[in-house]
Amino acid sequence: MMNVYEGTKETGRRKTVKRKSQLASIWTRYKKSQLAMAGLFLLILLIVIAIVAPLLANYEQDAIKQNMPIRLQSPSREHIFGTDHYGRDVFARIIFGARISLSVGLASVFISSILGVLIGSIAGYYGGKIDNLLMRLMDVLLALPSIFLAITIVAALGPGLINLLIAISISYVPRFSRIVRSSILSIKNQEFIEAARSCGTRDRRIILKHIIPNAIGPIIVEATLSIARAIIHVSSLSFLGLGIKPPMPEWGSMLAEGKSYMGSHQYLVIIPGIAIVMSVMALNLIGDGLRDALDPRLKN
Amino acid sequence: MLRKKSILTLSLLLIVAIVLAGCGGETKSSSDKRDNLIYVFDGEPQTLDCAKTSDQLAYTVVYQIHDYLIDRLPDGTLVPGLAETWEYSDDGTEITFHIRENVKFHNGDVLTAEDVAFSLNNAIGSSQTSRITSAMDSASVVDENTVLLKLKHPFGAIEYCLANAQMGIVNKKAYEEDPEAFARHPVGTGAYQFKEWKTGDSITLTAFDDYYKDKASIENIEFRIMLDSDTAVMALENGEVDFTFDIPNTAIKKVQENENLEYYVTNAASTCYVVLNNEHEILSNKKVRQAIAHAIDKEALIAGAVEGYGVPAETPISTTAFGFPADFKNREYDVEKAKELLAEAGYPDGFKIVFTATETLNFKKPGEILQDQLGAIGIELDIKDVEFSVYLDDVISGNNYEMAVTEQSTAYPDADHIYSLYHSSMIDVGRNFINVRNDQLDELLDRGRVSQDPDERIKAYEEICELWKEECFTVPTYALQTDIAANKNLKGVIPHSPSVYKIYHYSWE
Amino acid sequence: MGKYIGKRILMMIPIILGISFIIFGILELTPGDPARNILGDSATNESVEALREEMGLNDPFLVKYFNYVKNALRGDFGTSYKSGLPVLEELKGRLPHSLKLALGSILIVTFLSIPVGIISAVKQYSFLDTVSLIGAFLLTSMPSFWFGIMMILFFALQLKILPATGVTTWKHFVLPSIAMAGLGIAVVVRMTRSSMLEVIRQDYIRTARAKGASESGVIIKHGLKNALLPIITVLGVEFGSMLGGGMIIESVFAIPGIGSMTVDAIRTSNTPLVIASITFSAIAISIINLIVDILYVYIDPRLKSNIKRAGS
Question: How do B352-357 and B403-409 pair as beta strands?
Fold first, then answer.
């Protein structure tokens, strides 16, 4: 993990103009890893399922509408993943749940990476007092386990999709700003930045046009792995009853609900867990693949 | 050299770690006759000061430690306890208790009338006991063995109230010395004396040698705290613990099938109902409330919320209470009729409403089911799952809610228990958080409370139910059951409501 | 050395102040009235208000915070709103359970992951290497609470060989410790493998082999010793997060430890308890980091100069 930063020095030395061919060579290296390709394939599959979910099941009728007479039915031809304690179709809830998990994961990491890039690049570029202040604040937040911070924020704001998003986003900002700052530190004194500065380019432009594009590698790797982490954290919070509001289907809350029936209806806790593991695994594979592709020296 | 040192340090650390990790590993020896009972708690009492206790778990502990003026036997009959005899004044507002002599406290003191009067007044003065002490005024010492209890009005259920777990007779001296210490280490005259309270872990009691009746058969009681009730049942199945009550509904079947366990069940004195804030701008409309009553499928609610372990409730009156009209039928489940009524009320497309729930009391499931059922007639429920204290603040005492469910358990088996919930005089001072203001209802409730004629009382409560059907102040949904799962060798177990059990009556086979 | 340790401890103070301020602030916004929580549902609004006043809950935020810090410096961390017990007393009751859990997990991580990692490295690309990498990968992709549930399902409900929950005997800690160790196992296996791979390519290993030392001797004596630094770092980090991260595992296995207490305390805005528990875990993590740094010196004396420099 530590070696990611060394890797950026390497990529940073190349000129931005070469980015296209650089992308192509990253892709060539990425393609070589079967595991990474498997991860990509799995993720695309999950995204496709999430998108076409309405074609596979009816949200209102199958995933939301309760039907007590058929509650707690084990998997059968009619309900391939069985039904839950309200007689709702577990398959429908899983595929619509994919929409929630993936989009909350993506959105929260998007928000936190933007904020992290902002804080990290300001701190790294300007240095001095601003750097000190921002980074001490990040140190404080980093000293808290991120799940702890998220639980505290959701408890304050109350459960719900948006609040969950806010909580996860905030708790991921420190990691991103740390990473961005250290990549920036390694880039900012290089010749091409010096050159841009001597041409009179303004700071904002230097950060946006020169520094961030060159530091983007580790950010993307961290972001991919963070989405995976976010999916786990969202489900953990829901499992504790601090997630989305009912009747929305979410994997973690499905697990929490199923737990009281696990003695007799194991599928209720097995299936949502597998869904979580699959999506997290896909993202982890992609993250690892990207890391290797961005810095080929790291491959053993 | 350094390397050796580092290996040494590491291995020392590991040894310490192993020893620490192994600390909890004592093994239980199985002798022929058990002398202890392990009783599962799914939470932890906040205090053992019986007048300040507010939950079933704390009631259960203090119930073993203290004696009561009047004792309630497992079958529900009331018998003399610390009071050998008592008599009422002619107008029924004063009771004179003759206290049993030579009863010893756990600290060796002898019980006096002082202790009794102090305990009663302490309970009357506590804000936690209002449900049972609202009719009591004060207690005073008449002579060494006589105590006089004054009532605010004659009250048929007073003896039940005095047998309630919160009315324990405490040792005045020990209490006054340090009330806070007393709350962690109570002193009573009961069959068991307090031994130890390990926070987060257990409370242990041991049989009292100088008990005024025969010494308890089971020597030691451990109330073991196991936060998750699902897993408490697993421990019960594995024989690690002996006794638990209010089994999670999802686990009942497993308990019934286990041959080492006995499962006991009976009707509880608690009813679950949908709370509609009668002052809310939409819910104040009678037609809307009627529509909601028609839209609720009680059978589905029972199946989904309590796994089928409940009985549909038709009235607000507890099934175990005097005055309960057994044959009364409320509004039936009829979605079409509900839609009609809603349209008549001016909401053909329904409306949106906030439903306040708390998972601490398992109100989320009924909420989700009502969300589904009321959704069918266009009423959209926004479920607000809040922390227990927020629920209490918003619903029970804050009038800051629209719709909710609640469970109401009665302190005494008499239909009068609905008085404090629905009489308009109870809106700010009592528990009428539903904001019912209905003159006819007030009049009927008053008649039921003061009348000395049982038939007239029964009639008043029947009329109340009729009025309920018309007005739908609340929608009663189901009556709960109360159950016990215990080691099958434990004898003397009888389930009853409220589910506070005296272990003195139990023994091992 | 003493100077260095002293400096490290001083550095923790601003962090702990910062954490407590942030958490104090967020909890201030959390709905829920501790006074109402204590008095229960039959209390009147007046008595709740009186208790609020008595507990100082009506003071402005900053006043409350400074009072708290002032008392904490005097060693008084307040009383739990719920039980009325001093916070330290409450922690003391819970700590043994969390400690046993964390120690159990770190033992599992240490004694399982390091050997597996070494074998993976020595026999790179072997069947065992592949299996251990896949296993490690699965563990990183699994929420620990689900891992725990699956183990309850299999070992407690199906095979009935281990208890699912509770804290009575050492057996009760087996499943939660494994569940908690899951992620750590994966991280340490990977770290051991990669750092061993790096080491065994070095010349001195080849030299040792050429001198005729036994293979296992070479691996343990020369290889592991030199690969140990990053492994210990990771072990330290994992142990720290175990001490502070029992929140969900403890809920799943119904362990009355610091983690489950903290979740409950956050939800009921039991501020003194939350702050105390987070301070505890921050201190524990710092101490572990310190121990790790000190261990470095024993393993690699060259690092001693670093510490001297940092201490002066």
Answer: parallel
Residue of A nearest to B232 (CA): A260
What are the residue ranges spanned by the domains of chain B? 1-42+191-260+488-509, 54-179, 267-481
Q: What is the average pLDDT score of chain B? A: 87
Per the structure, the complete domain to which residue C11 belongs is given by: 2-73
Phi, psi of A86 (to 5 degrees): -110, 10
Residues of chain A falling short of pLDDT 50: 1-16, 298-300
- Residue C81 belongs to a domain: no
pLDDT at A160: 86
Distance separating alpha carbons of residues A235 and A276, to the nearest angstrom: 8
For residue range B285-318, list pLDDT tens digits in order.
Answer: 999 999 999 999 999 999 999 888 888 999 999 8
Determine phi and psi for A84, rounding to 5 degrees. Answer: -95, -170
Which residues from chain C sit within 8 angstroms of residue A145, using beta carbons?
A: 241, 244-245, 281
The backbone torsions φ and ψ at residue B461, rounded to the nearest 5 degrees and listed phi first, read -70, -30
Average pLDDT over residues B104-110: 95
Among chain A residues, the shortest Cα distance to C194 is held by A300
Chains interfacing with B (3 or more CB pairs < 8 Å):
A, C
**Chain A: which residues have CB within 8 Å of chain B?**
64-66, 68, 71, 85-86, 155, 158-159, 241, 245-247, 259-261, 263-264
Residues of chain A neighbouring B384 (CB-CB closer than 8 A): 158
Q: Do B372 and A85 touch (CB under 8 A)?
A: no
User: Three-state SS string across C82-114, please?
Assistant: CCCCEHHHHHHHHHHHHHHHHHHHHHHHHHHHH
Fold of B54-179: Dipeptide-binding Protein; domain 1 (3.90.76)
Lowest mean pLDDT among A205-209, B275-279, C155-159: A205-209
Contact C55, C67 (CB under 8 A): no
Q: In Å, how far is C267's CA from the nearest CA of chain B?
A: 7
Q: Which of A152, A158, A263 sits opposite C23 (nearest CB)?
A: A152
| Whether residues C191 and C261 fall in one domain | yes
Number of separate domains in chain C: 2
List pLDDT tens digits, range A264-274. 899 999 999 99
Domain that holds residue A260: 33-59+78-298
* pLDDT tens track for C56-96: 788 888 888 888 888 888 878 888 877 777 888 888 888 88
Q: Indicate whether C86 belongs to any domain.
A: no
Q: Is residue A2 part of a domain?
A: no
Regarding whether C36 and C171 lie in a shared domain, the answer is: no
Domain harbouring A214, CATH code:
1.10.3720.10
